[in-house]
From TrEMBL:
Species in which this protein is naturally found: Caenorhabditis nigoni
PANTHER family cross-referenced by the UniProt entry: 7-TRANSMEMBRANE DOMAIN RECEPTOR C.ELEGANS (PTHR22943), SEVEN TM RECEPTOR (PTHR22943:SF46)
Name assigned to this protein: Serpentine receptor class r-10
Family to which this protein belongs: Belongs to the nematode receptor-like protein str family.
Domain of life: Eukaryota
One record GO biological process: olfactory behavior
GO CC aspect terms: ciliary membrane
Residues annotated as domain G-protein coupled receptors family 1 profile: 20-298
Amino acid sequence: MLLDFQQTYAHVTFGLSIFSNSLLLSLLIFRRDKNLGSYKYLMFAFSFLGLFFSIVDFSNKPMVHIYGGAYLVFSLNSFGLPHFLANWFNALNCSCYGMTISLLAVHFIYRYLAVCRPNQMNWFMWPHTIVWFIFCSEISFEWWITAVLYAGETRVIDELVKDSMKTNYNLTKGEFIYAASLYYRTNEKGEKTISWPDVLFAVNIVKLITICMTIVLFCGIATFRKLRTLRHTSKRTTTLQQQLFKALVTQTVIPVLTMFLPAAVMMISPLFEVTLGSYEGLIMTVITTYPCVDPMVVIFFVRDFRHAIWQTIRCKRCLYSRETYSLRGTAVSFITEPN
């Protein structure tokens, strides 16, 4: 039942992600606005990554199993790829996760500079944007290559999880492929010892998450404080400030709940040899929800995007109308006007 639920949920999130990201891309392409500036390209990157993440996730339909000091991110290899290629493809889920959190960090750096240091916004103009491309690509590649080289299948893990995989998922060796870490191993004397390569692999992942999370928190808190100290008298600026507060809080809470927290549970539970039972199915389920939720957050807080969709539903204006419009009081640009 758990396996069937996760496979079905993968279809649902895939459909929602394709719809929401395609909708946002359509709005970005067909709607024209000068106030978005370079933020438009960040939203493009988020949407394209969301689509790619969804395709990879739908192709792999990864699941998590935690047992005996080990965690597995496993897949049924629905494409029937050769074993080594299937493992490389499975590792793309880790790569997409790394790319997503790094791009999220860049997103908050943009917000921080736009509100707190507008004179440094040239960092998001060509050719300085190469810095952010390299930052995201490096983290993504590091996650992929370490998953391939240091989290591959081993006979020890095969034997450890053989019975539990049969009991929980009715799967036997050869019916699935996986990437895994086993924190404790038994030596020739029968003594349980720490597997330092697996611990260091986990530490590397935690390091990358910590770097991105620190950027998110620092930039988020600094931006929040700056917005609180702004003096305003016009209704337009007041509305803008309120929307920025809501957007900032929402876009901080959602990835924490859907990406950072599940990953922490997956990696910390094996350290204490905690078995989550059927609850382990929620880990990947929650993580794969993020790509379809994030574009909806952007659409909701960008007032003119929201209005364009509503007017299209009411048959008052085509969604793809190329009318020029301005973002009045949106969550993506900071505009002030004279008193």
